[in-house]
């Protein structure tokens, strides 16, 4: 992770103290910090959350701007007073973690999926996400999408809580709910949704490119047609569709980006999983033998689907490259729709149903087509019996 601005040593200590000795931290680009649960985590767990798989009810935001600092009574405050002031304010608002801080916790961090360098821990239960590279300074599609969905009665419960946009060190961030906050050693699965995960304007140029042909050949020497081999070039559209067909995106409308189960390293090299039995085996590995988790996840995904279908926002927006992030532990289950950097409004007068086949200009991306099949896959996945762990191994050709 790279954050260009550096923190002073006091700020680093503030962030360390807020991260606490335990828990898992989710930074919306899928970065997790794993540590041993401790008292700090207990402080954030209410006593009435003991019911198995009780859905996390989010409370209204308590994030406020820090109060202005009164003028010191003496010319130079004592170091202990300064430390106390900074520590108190860090609970509400602070800089994201620096490279030095993250390196000091290198044994506790790993990359699950997504683009490294775009997220940083911010406070208890929040993260900062950097503006997507290439966005126009005056245009932030992800911020706009989160603000619109946070105001939508149908969708605000299906996304991470959105707090605000802010600037730090010359860069723009949005502050979001830390989805893993409060979960203990959970199972985690990130699922990229849609049959199309690229924007239409990304493939509008019909010029054949040699570099994309070379990429295609490296992945599969037999993929280019005879004409493409002769020209040693392919268009951007051809290459992007080829890439979608190598995963389950084109056929199933979703692909599993990464899976993390307790006590094991994350599975992130899942791009070649495309056959139904391979996908089912990966889902079974994620679920273990937990039938209660399966039922709770299915119920939550159906809820998200119903909310999505009733949202006016999604009738007029294409949702490209978004994911569903699924979490469960011994006490609860969560699932949220995340990642809106490629969400765009469709031309005026056009509506999308998110299930129709994509053709250039209709802006369909297959989100609901994929969600239907994801729910069906989770319903049908054969869970292993205790001791039958081999059945949960994903069938992946590496």
UniProtKB/TrEMBL annotation:
User: Which Pfam families has this protein been placed in?
Assistant: IPK (PF03770)
Q: Which positions carry the signal peptide feature in this UniProt record?
A: none
Identify the enzyme class: transferase
| Sequence ranges of Low complexity compositional bias | 59-71
Q: Which UniProt keywords apply?
A: Kinase, Transferase
Q: Which family does it belong to?
A: Belongs to the inositol phosphokinase (IPK) family.
* Region annotated Disordered, chain positions: 55-78
Gene Ontology CC terms: cytoplasm; nucleus
Q: What is its EC number?
A: 2.7.-.-
What is the protein named? Answer: Kinase
Q: Which Gene Ontology terms cover its molecular function?
A: inositol hexakisphosphate kinase activity
GO BP annotation list:
inositol phosphate biosynthetic process; phosphatidylinositol phosphate biosynthetic process
For this protein, the record's InterPro entries field holds:
IPK, IPK_sf
